[in-house]
Amino acid sequence: MTKATGDGTPAKKAKAKRGAKPAKPAPRAYERPRGGEARAISDLVPEIGRTAFRKFGFIQSSVVSRWREIVGDRLADVTQPAMIRFPAGQKAGGTLHLTISGAHAPMLQHVAPDIIAAVNRFFGYAAIATVRMTHGQVIPAAPVQPPAMLKPVPAELGDSLRDIGDPELRTVLERMAAGLAAPPRLPKIS
Q1: 3-state secondary structure 66-83
Q2: In whole angstroms, what separates CA 77 from the centre of its chain?
Q3: What is the DSSP letter of 37?
Q4: Which of 2, 61, 110, 181 could form a disulfide with 53 if both were Cys (CB 3.0 to 4.6 A apart)?
Q5: The predicted structure's pLDDT at residue 157
Q6: Is 164 within 8 Å of 129 (Cβ atoms)?
Q7: Parallel, antiparallel, or unpaired: how do β-strands 79-85 and 94-100 relate?
Q8: C-alpha distances in Å from residue 32, one per residue of 1, 36, 44
Q9: CA separation (Å) from 121 to 54, 62, 116, 187?
């Protein structure tokens, strides 16, 4: 009689179970603890401001910073956006809360549809459906002054830039045209 030499005998299996150590799990690849990749501070600042504005009811902080452009100088002097409240789970059909100075409320109730249209035009969709007004102190922001044109348009650029009404856009286009026309040069390293 020959003795079976296979590993299938119950005695060997029991012995292997008693003396064997449990298998170690495969080592995990290193993952950075939190936060992902390093980011520039300039990328983080809008998020911090966005968080603060959301806390006070503003989804888009640019409504506050560009209020004068949205509604015009006359209305921006007597109104100030306080917050925007949307229905739960929606980003349309919201209520714009305005702070109004003095006795301008009756006039602004007649102009409310124009304010709604201007804000919706700014957003690009029907974000605002109603306006709610509250009396309060409004500190008018200084009007935005476009930068003065530093020099006249050179004759070699032609008449195409002279017809541009926005001085800031014209200055940017002039600088771009001058940069493209200049011969290439090596950057200075100091």
Answers
A1: CHHHHHCHHHHCCEEEEE
A2: 26
A3: S
A4: 61
A5: 60
A6: no
A7: antiparallel
A8: 63, 7, 19
A9: 21, 13, 8, 43
Task: Report, in angstroms and rounded to the nearest whole number, the Rg of the chain calculated over CA atoms.
Answer: 33
Burial class (CB in 10 A: 0-12, 13-18, 19+), 95: middle
The structure tokens listed for 188 are 């200075």
H or E stretch at 14: helix 10-19
Nearest to 98 by CA among 117, 78, 72: 78
- Amino acid of residue 149: M
- Taking CA 131 as the corner, what is the angle to CA 64 and CA 122, rounded to the nearest 5 degrees? 45
CB 171 within 8 A of CB 147: yes
Alpha helices by DSSP H, 56-186 = 62-65, 67-71, 73-76, 105-123, 167-181
Distance CA 137, CA 100 (A): 7
CA distances from 88 to 27, 91, 97 (A): 45, 9, 17
Q: Average pLDDT per run of 10 along the chain, which is 190 residues long?
A: 56 58 74 69 65 58 83 90 87 91 88 94 91 88 60 60 75 78 67
- Return the structure tokens found at 145: 């002054």
Amino acid type, 126: A
